[in-house]
Amino acid sequence: MKLRDLEYLVALDEEGHFARAAGRCFVSQPTLSGQLKKLEEELGVVLVERSSRQVAMTGAGRAVAAQARRVLAEAREIKGIAEGFHDPMAGALQLGLIPTVAPYLLPLIMPRLQAAYPQLKLWLHEQQTHVLMERLRNAELDLLLLALPVPRHDFVEVALFREPFQLAVPRGDPLARQGQVQIAELKGREVMLLEEGHCLREHALDVCLGAGASEYGAFHATSLETLRHMVGEGMGVTLMPQLAVPRHPRADDAVHYLPFAPPAPSRRIGMLYRKGSYRAETFARLGREVVAVTGNSVVDS
Question: 281 and 88 in contact (C-beta within 8 Å)?
Fold first, then answer.
């Protein structure tokens, strides 16, 4: 039994299509199909039901694929352990980030990491918190960058920095003439928020309800960029985490960003990884790089 054959099985289980699974594994469809047939013969059980219309995993196939994920994760960890003894900042690392952090932090941090640690190969995964945590639990990911707090269970949580919110308003809004905004000025306002599933929605909703504001119920955005465009079109106001606020906004920008007067509402950004991970030193160094590039201070957890 070869690890590569297990990779083929996992790919087919997740893609549900021979051609897509083959493309993902960078092999031809006949090669993938033939190797899976050999795996079935070796195990003496049918893993995949084949028909002209669809591909379906058998019960045995799903069970073997689930175990294969764990085997492949352990194999990656063995390789990583060996690499880590030579250099903790070398080798492959599977990094997960939430959608309200990834697009804004990665352009800042990646050039710095590539210059400082050329032997470190980061595989990046952008998904919502609950998906990332499940993948971390299954050893598909090594490290998460996300908003805290989250249920820890068997994870180590490391707080990195506190990210303030700013209020994004249309250029023509009366508040746009101010240099900053008081949290109390949200009272009676409707605030546009992200859809269910985004942790930022819960943080922003807490701020709004605490200030006497309400949620704009007619629209829920799938991303911060959608919210930004809706504000620019004059549809309302929203909360933006500081990393998502342009560092050098244009004079003709349709959106105006207002910092809150102290104490400004904020969220904590941090790291999550499995307890007992042999890469704790790697994670610590990455955390310090994140803090340095964002210009924020480490916060108490």
Answer: yes
Residues 256 and 282 placed together within one structural domain of the fold = no
User: How many folded domains does the chain comprise?
Assistant: 3
pLDDT in tens, 109-121: 999 999 999 999 9
d(CA 185, CA 174): 11
Does pLDDT of 219 surpass 90? Answer: no
- Domain end point (choices 75, 100, 133): 75
Question: Is residue 100 included in any domain, yes or no?
Answer: yes
Note the pLDDT of residue 53. 64
In a domain, 118, yes or no: yes
Give the whole-angstrom CA distance, residue 68 versus residue 63. 9
Cα angle value 25/29/33 (rounded, 5°): 95
171: Cβ contacts below 8 Å, ≥ 6 apart:
253, 254, 255, 256
Burial 58-81 (b: 16+ CB within 10 A, else e): eeebeebbeebbeebbeebbeebe
CA–CA gap between residue 258 and residue 169 (Å, rounded): 8
In a domain, 112, yes or no: yes
Do the Cβ atoms of 126 and 226 come closer than 8 Å? no
DSSP H helical ranges for 138-223: 199-211
Residues 6 or more apart whose CB falls under 8 angstroms from that of 57 comprise 12, 13, 47, 48, 49, 65
For 1-12, letters b (16+ CB in 10 Å) and e give: eeeebbbbbbbb
Range of the domain at 53: 3-75
Distance of CA 148 to the CA centre of its chain: 13
**Nearest in space to 230 (alpha carbons), one of 205, 206, 255:** 255
User: Which CATH number belongs to the domain containing residue 206 in this structure?
Assistant: 3.40.190.10
- How big is the CA angle at 88 (ends 87 and 92), to the nearest 5 degrees? 100
- Mean pLDDT, all residues of the chain: 90
